[in-house]
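Follow-up to my post from last week.
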Amino acid sequence: MAEQTQGAVPLSAVIADAATGVALALQGGGDPYALSRILRQGDPLAAAAVRVLGADALAPYALEHRAVPAGADDEAVVRQTLAAYPPGADASAVSAWSYRGLVEATHAYLPSGAQPWPRPPEAAAEWTGTDPWPRLAHRVSQLAALALPDLAGELAEQLGARTDDLARGFVRAVRRRDWLQAAGVGRWLARLPGVPATLGLDAGLAFVRQMGGGDPRVALHVVAAQRFFGRGW
Amino acid sequence: MITDRTAPVETAALAAEVEGLLTPAEPDGVYRDTRECGGGLLLLGLLLISPPTPRPKTGLR
Amino acid sequence: MSAGRGDPELLDRLVGGSLGWLEKRRDHFRLPPDATTDADPNLTLKPLGELAELTQFIGSAHPLPEVRATAAALFAFAWREAREGELFAELIRGEPYATYPVEIYGAFAQAGLRHPAVEELVLTTTGLRGWRVAREDHTRTLGVLNAERRIGLAQHADFDAAFARTGLGLRPEPWALDRRAAYGLTHDVFHLTDWGRNPRRLSPEAAGYLRLWLPSWLENWLEEQLWDLVGELLAVAACLPGAPYDAAAWQRLAAAQAADGGVPETGAVPRPADPAEDFLACYHSTLVTAFAGTLARIASDEAGAGTGPVPAGDAAVAGRTPCESEAAL
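User reply:
Got it. Predicted complex:
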């Protein structure tokens, strides 16, 4: 990879590296996962990368024996993120939900030290009922990291009423070769009940991985769908 | 990979970049069809899905 | 998509504009003197065959009498161009093993337009063992079987078995569909339902599959601006129980129709200046638009009359048998 003259690595590259690390941990490969080893505390890009990855930065902690018990350094990276990138008053729904997902993941997967984790902030959800299906699918794909066990239960319930629409979004995304969107929607479909059988979700996730797995985030979503919800192969 | 992540980072710019990465616009669709599909939609068209059988040239009469 | 009355005004404008365009360019459908020998059948017989197939349906089934009259006149023109069937006798004598003369003749035969020499010829040619050898394309086989049914010939293969091997019979992963497969699916529906005349021939499984995935395919091909395929997909939607009506898709198809009524094959390239080329670039999509608009308009009428109502998702079927193909013989 070309080093930039200023010595700075682009944020997208940091995120890609971290996504690769998370996916590897979910597959059971490599050393036990520790967030602070993937993204060092004090690195100005670490907090930004955790914010973008959202709950996925903590996904390996949802698995027993896949991660070392979270330590103070791991907790510090998360606290730094939550402090540095709170969604503003005019933040998009995706930004608000993604932040909330990260907070929920701390409660679910990371026992806190001395200080308790903040309460998950409220996030608007009326779009789950009002978005036309292509927009809904795109938005849901941006919230793929929330498709984790014990997170965003209410959101999952509301999306469960629109599995047909999300499945349509998956079809549309694959056909236009938007692998990241397809992987994100596919991951959510893996979590939801009642996905139409003719969709062929398992084959679809495998196909997306083969076609778009060069993007570490695509690979991460497909791996998560398999590891947590048993879909795809 | 050697990464130097100590360069000063403009915080506001980073926050904007984070927002952008959280909500990327849809990329343009990429449509590429099986190559045998291409070339002459007219041949595929409505009634005669595949081209009719080749016919002998005149001059035999 | 929603079931219901749709937008009859828009549909009438669309169909009227399309038929007007076809009427005005009727002479481009005329066959050249070498139509049965050297001319490219894709540029001569295929357009005429499509004109016959679709105007026969529109002329017999559209709710508006003036639309029916225009379409019926075009159908009568096509029969005259076919020299009242003599064309098919000539084609079959020249190419006894080709299926397309039989397929096109079927469009006329089911409307009661027949030619004695053709009737005798096809009894012989379609009775050969060679006629039963599997064809490359199972969708095409359905088309041949439908033609046989229309003409009143023995079926050279079992329709259900042939259907089971088509795209709609197998119902592939809806994301694993290229353009050719999509055309195959729409034609599976057309051959199965006898071009929309018998929508109840669609099984609940096939109808459910189409109802689920048509919105995705429509989005994709609207984005590609492949208007003929958009029209075919809309026609398929109109064949489903309850005829789900995708208002946005219809509006975009209507926007693709030029002021002269022509609908180009694709929005990606400008229409040719040369009239003959422009005809070839538009005739197919324009015919498909008129056909799809007619099917949707019939469904709209049925919904309005409360005869074929059918809330979306219901397995109930709207009846429609303006021209029963089995009655052909």
